[in-house]
Write a structure and sequence with these properties.
heterodimer, A: about 250 residues, alpha/beta, Rossmann fold, 2 domains, 6-stranded mixed beta sheet, 4-stranded antiparallel beta sheet, about 35% helix, B: about 350 residues, mainly alpha, two-stranded antiparallel sheet, 16 helices, 2 strands
Chain lengths: ~250, ~350
């Protein structure tokens, strides 16, 4: 059964139709890529999945449960984590503090004002194991603001992973990364794949076709093609419209 | 605010040092040409400013009508004393509770807002409280104030302390101040405080991490208003009366100014520094010229222009220059610069 399923999603902003009848599902352990030109509605679609935008029509189901009308925090607590296109880390926190605050066990104690947050070994070890996964363990005590661009990208993913989500939504994870950084990110995602469902918006075709099981091509608010990377490469229509850059 | 040193401790060396210094104040305050009541005022305003800064500095919520809760606490203290029972503990509890209830009511209405809209709503609600205090003459005495509020004795069962003298009152208020400091230090460094800090940095991100941001904003506003009410109650006791002017927009602005001058945005102690500087400046410059507010206003402008982190920020920056540990960290940071992606 699909972990996350969206059916017949319509979004209108005033007169403008941004998304028109988008249906989509992702299985546990699968990576579903979303590509398409700028302004196609990809990020809006993410906003619908994570409760930032309420669709005018259509439903979103997580594990069979209707989550369409829930606020973002409730959807996040149910297991959909997302990274942002424009990175929104807590700049004044250290790397470790950024990850700790994302842990479900930290959230469970969020209204606890009687104990100190620092020096809690359970939080610390959970955060360090996530940081080790993304290769940031040595930077744990750096203030987030002082990280390099690539490291911030890695921290962004660490924060999403710390939530132990059922579904991980990555909005252009490679943007701004060089080839080296992209290769390391592909490694990381390959290691994560199979453990959870991943939805990734991505411009870098080569990257996406390398890691994705399924790819949806979105244009003018609609899914114009869908399939495995090899199916899409063979699709002449998609080739002409969108994948010219891919040999 | 970044996590300060000793964040995990209940009582820090700074707290102890401050407590000890403050405990000696009555011994020398007249010697330096000031007067004991100023010490009481400084402590009460410090409680108020710390409570205010829980909102502004920790949670990033600008409340420009915070005098309302200070005033509600002052009236609650006086009215409980005059109409219910003249018990210090009961009156202080009433001040805390009344401030908290008023704060919670307002918070429910404004906490879905952000930024400038939030700030304007706090002003609007603050004005409502102020207006009601002036107009309900039969309850609050209107602009004539609520008079004949007594400095009630502290009854501890076995012993009773008379707080009528300024020195006795100073030590009582110092005790309350230290308890508030310990409580707020723990709160700001707890998981709850960390979440508030996260909300200040990005409400959107905090929501997407699963935190019900609105509930947190209501909770912190309520706590801040309750402690402001407590400060108001102590103030009513100290000046034997309660007046609506503490609730006015102008007076609400004072606490904002004190906190910013002191450096509440970068330091837990900023509000206390700001209160000390403001009240001493008022008396020292005020003794020379009646236009002292002009000079303090100029100081405020200079700080906003050149040291937006306030006095505490300036001290921190200066300290960092000399802090060997920071130097070492910085050099290690340079050595560890990653190879460019």
């Amino acid at each position: 059964m699909a972990v996350l399923e969206a059916s017949g999603i319509h979004v209108r902003f005033g007169q403008r139709v941004v998304l028109e009848d988008i249906s989509f599902s992702v299985q546990a352990g699968e990576l579903h890529g979303i590509m398409g030109p700028n302004g196609a509605g990809k990020t809006t679609f993410f906003n619908v999945l994570t409760g930032r935008v309420r669709p005018s029509r259509g439903r979103v189901h997580l594990d069979g449960k209707d989550v369409t009308s829930l606020p973002s925090h409730a959807i996040a607590a149910l297991g959909i984590a997302r990274s942002f296109q424009l990175m929104t880390l807590f700049d004044e926190f250290t790397v470790q503090e950024n990850v700790e605050v994302a842990l479900p066990e930290f959230r469970a104690r969020g209204f606890d004002a009687r104990r100190a947050a620092a020096g809690n070994e359970a939080f610390e070890s959970a955060a360090m194991s996530v940081l080790a996964q993304v290769g940031l363990a040595e930077k744990a005590h750096f203030v987030a603001k002082d990280l390099s661009y690539g490291e911030r990208r890695a921290l962004e993913i660490a924060v999403a992973l710390a939530q132990r989500p059922r579904v991980l939504c990555l909005d252009e994870p490679t943007s701004g990364l060089g080839s080296d950084g992209t290769a390391r990110l592909a490694d990381l995602i390959a290691r994560l794949k199979g453990k959870l469902a991943i939805v990734a918006i991505e411009h870098d075709m080569e990257f996406l076709f390398h890691i994705a099981d399924q790819v949806s091509v979105v244009h003018w608010g609609q899914v114009i093609a869908r399939g495995t990377p090899s199916e899409l490469k063979a699709n002449p229509w998609v080739q002409r419209s969108n994948l010219g850059r891919l040999q | 605010m970044r996590t300060p040193p000793h964040a995990e401790k209940l009582i820090t060396p700074a707290m102890l040092a401050l407590g000890l210094v403050l405990a000696t104040v009555p011994l020398w305050i007249t010697g330096i040409g000031l007067y004991p009541y100023l010490g009481v005022e400084i402590l009460i305003w410090s409680i108020y400013a710390l409570a205010f800064n829980l909102l502004l500095g920790t949670a990033g919520l600008p409340s420009f009508g915070h005098g309302a809760y200070f005033g509600v606490g002052a009236y609650a203290f006086g009215l409980t004393q005059l109409n219910v029972a003249p018990s210090l503990w009961l009156c202080l509890a009433a001040a805390l509770l009344a401030g908290g209830i008023a704060g919670a009511l307002v918070a429910v209405f404004i906490s879905h807002r952000r930024g400038i809209y939030y700030a304007f709503m706090t002003i609007a609600f603050g004005q409502i409280f102020w207006f009601v205090a002036i107009k309900s003459h039969s309850i609050t005495g209107g602009e004539d104030g609520l008079l004949k509020i007594a400095r009630l004795p502290a009854d501890l069962g076995l012993v009773t302390f008379n707080l009528a003298s300024n020195t006795a009152l100073f030590y009582f208020v110092l005790l309350v101040f230290m308890l508030v400091v310990i409580g707020l230090w723990r709160l700001t460094n707890s998981p709850f405080g960390r979440v508030l800090n996260a909300i200040r940095q990005s409400e959107t991100r905090a929501a997407h991490l699963g935190y019900p941001v609105r509930l947190y904003k209501i909770a912190v506003f309520t706590i801040s208003a309750a402690l402001s009410g407590l400060a108001g109650g102590l103030f009513a006791m100290a000046q034997n009366s309660a007046f609506p002017d503490v609730m006015s927009l102008h007076q609400s602005g004072l606490v904002v100014m004190m906190v910013l001058v002191g450096g509440g945005l970068v330091s837990f102690w900023g509000p206390v520094i700001g209160v000390v500087v403001y009240l001493i400046a008022r008396d020292v410059i005020g003794a020379v010229t009646s236009a002292w507010m002009l000079w303090f206003g100029l100081l405020f402008i200079a700080i906003v222009l050149f040291r937006p982190e306030g006095i505490a920020g300036a001290v921190q920056a200066w300290w960092k220059e000399f802090d060997v540990r920071a130097l070492r960290l910085r050099s290690r940071g340079v050595l560890n610069q990653p190879v460019r992606d």
